[in-house]
Amino acid sequence: MDRNWIKDFIENFSSATIGDLDIPKLINDKSQHTPERLFKIRSCSKRALENLAQKTLFLGVAKKFNDPYDTAFWIDYRKLAAWEKLDKLGFSEDQVATALASDDPIAAVVALASAQQSCPLNVDEWLHEVGVLAPNHQSGQLPTLIGELQSSYKICSLSERVDSMLMWSHYGCNHTGFAMEYDFTSLHRNESPTFTLWPVAYTDKLIDVTHILRARRAGKDYNELFGIAASLCKALDWQYEREWRWVLPDDDRSVEGFNRPAPLKAVHLGARISDADALNILRICSEIDIPVFKVMLESHEYRMVSVPTSLEDWCSIAGRQQGNMPW
Predict the structure, then answer these.
(1) What are the backbone angles phi and psi of residue 156, rounded to the nearest 5°?
(2) What is the CB neighbour count within 10 angstroms for residue 288?
């Protein structure tokens, strides 16, 4: 599925103020592109089997994820200081935009102010202030803000793919686990699981929310949803996962996760799953009336395909194997 639309989607999602957000477009774009099949590859752990039996998904906090950059973002405090000073000094929007686009916005502010007939800026005092405060905020406030999001928002990662050998190796315990398949399009788009499901963008830079912090400091109706946008931006290294995320903003940092009902559609058994785990999962799926597939490795190319299977098939295979055992 084409994912080029996600760049504009994230730009909309990370607008400076709530008023700047085009929410109808946000929802419509997402609804038009939501895949009918999304997958969660798991090991055969107790929690995973409970999620299967209960038709739920576990949403956890980003600080527990395997990506150290998960839900991180960037604030350029030098740029922010320049922006706020230019606003205070009353420079035009064009002058502000030109200064902020320069390699050194601080130097650009000094140049603009110094060019005035009567310089409205105590240059030495302001440079000293910026020199002290910007690094302190960069090393103190920024990690604190990121940590708050990484410890509070509850997130579940899903993928458009069930045929990724890497993902089965990483998340499916070397192909011995299973994948749960979901269809969020079967729900109304205003229902919580679908309404809070979003695509992930892959980029070479962290999302920059300097403009949002400026709006907040200016007392504007700033975009409080920026944390969701941050959780949807990941490094290019992860793009093979073709990820979607179920994201629930939550201020309670004492809770590291919870289960929520999800539209389970099918289950796929890993290529190396044990007979015992396969039979266990097949029995669970029989009880909850969910179809099961087995991931098979193609013999002539690096490709995996899912084929239908059933409890009867596995019981028959197990019976034949026992009958062939030398006693």
Answers:
(1) -125, 125
(2) 12
User: Coil, strand or helix: which one is 144?
Assistant: helix
Q: Which DSSP letter does residue 208 get? A: B
pTM of the model: 0.89
Three-state DSSP at 316 gives: helix
Closest by alpha carbon to 151, among 255, 14, 260, 47?
255
Q: What distance in Å separates the CA atoms of residue 33 and residue 29, rounded to the nearest whole number? A: 6
Number of residues in the chain:
327
| Cβ neighbourhood burial of 248 (10 Å; 0-12, 13-18, 19+) | middle
pLDDT value for 191: 85
Please name every residue paired with 40 in a beta bridge, in sequence order, or none if there are none: 180
The dihedral through the CA atoms of 89, 92, 98, 101 has a sign that is: positive
Give me the residue label for tokens 């998340």: 171
- pLDDT-derived band at 62 (thresholds 50, 70, 90) equals very high
Question: Is pLDDT above 80 for 319?
Answer: no
| Residue 208 pLDDT exceeds 90 | yes
Strands 178-182 and 197-199: unpaired
Q: pLDDT of 172-196, one tens digit each?
A: 999 999 999 999 999 987 788 888 9
